[in-house]
From TrEMBL:
GO terms for biological process: negative regulation of DNA-templated transcription. It comes from the Bacteria. InterPro entries: ArsR-like_HTH (IPR011991), GAF-like_dom_sf (IPR029016), HTH_MetabolicPath_Reg (IPR050707), Tscrpt_reg_IclR_C (IPR014757), Tscrpt_reg_IclR_N (IPR005471), WH-like_DNA-bd_sf (IPR036388), WH_DNA-bd_sf (IPR036390). This is IclR family transcriptional regulator. Pfam families: HTH_IclR, IclR_C. SUPFAM superfamilies: GAF domain-like, Winged helix' DNA-binding domain. Residues 68-213 form the IclR-ED domain. Residues 6-67 form the HTH iclR-type domain. Keywords: DNA-binding, Transcription, Transcription regulation. GO terms for molecular function: DNA binding; DNA-binding transcription factor activity. The keyword Lyase does not apply. The lineage of its organism: Bacteria, Bacillati, Actinomycetota, Actinomycetes, Kitasatosporales.
Amino acid sequence: MTAETSQTLDRGLRVLKLLADTDHGLTVTELSNKLGVNRTVVYRLLATLEQHALVRRDLGGRARVGLGVLRLGRQVHPLVREAALPALRSLAEDIGATAHLTLVDGTEALAVAVVEPTWTDYHVAYRAGFRHPLDRGAAGRAILAARQQPLDDPGYTLTHGELEAGASGAAAPLIGVTGVEGSVGVVMLADAVPERVGPRVVDAAREVAEALR
């Protein structure tokens, strides 16, 4: 720790990160061992975090992430959207199709940013806030593919007619962005996605990932 940082805040944030990485919660002893501090320090950290609803403890005494993090999480989408818009605008104008950034929200895919092309006679109406199952549509399928094959370049996913009759989609996952699981894609009225669209979507996903790092 340097003189300009807060040791207590650092420890509290480390507690939240440790709890976020487990589905079963952690005991005071487990947190103490992982942080390398005594149990009294952990008790104080947990008590403070509980006051802000960022941590909760079950009847067995295991600490888990609290519902208060949801209020913080709601503010993440506007920041992510702002960072992604330049790449999405470029993608939409280049391809002439509706471009979107989609993030995982529980078991669903949630469109958090959408940009429509300005020069086409018609395009697919796709709105921010639109939800669909992860296993339907290019956006969700690209995310699932990245989970199965977490490589630096997992490629892109193509679909047709899964979310809207007559519409085709292409999407590529965001790679290397800590705490964000999502994809960038386009949706168009076509029987098939043109060959150049897939690689262009991958490039846009890389641009968005870099903007979010």
